[in-house]
Amino acid sequence: MPSNDVRILAQAAVPTAAVGAVAAVVSAVVAGGKGAIGALVATVVVVLFMGIGLYVLQRTAKSLPHLFQAMGLMLYAAQILLLFVFLTVFKDTTLFHPKAFAFTLVAGTLAWIAAQTRAHMKSKILYVEPESTTGRKPDKSEHSS
Q1: Range(s) of the domain holding residue 53
Q2: Which residue, of 11, 28, 100, 104, has the greatest Cβ tally within 10 A?
Q3: Are 115 and 15 spatial neighbours (Cβ–Cβ below 8 Å)?
């Protein structure tokens, strides 16, 4: 991944991990050890789903830039759907506290989206290739048709 992509990934993953850590502490106090495990699992799921999504979106932007916006909308819809499926599959689990898992999953997803939005707004990404200063400049007498 280019350094700009890694920077955006880190700027989204770190706040999400912080939200997950706070959720794990709160869940441990409220629901015990299973609550903390549920919060930690939810945090890992959010970081993996959203991180893979960001990677796929950046690859699409480089290889198929004309599909970037549509791919972004489809990707977010697919991620939300997959998170809903994950919630549905694990709603009756005894491995961890399902409510702590669900609340952390929602909080982590919102934290990721907010942090990624902020990272994109703050990054200075060129969307127009600057002209090369070493290349040949067209003569003024040439026609541009």
Answers
A1: 3-121
A2: 104
A3: yes
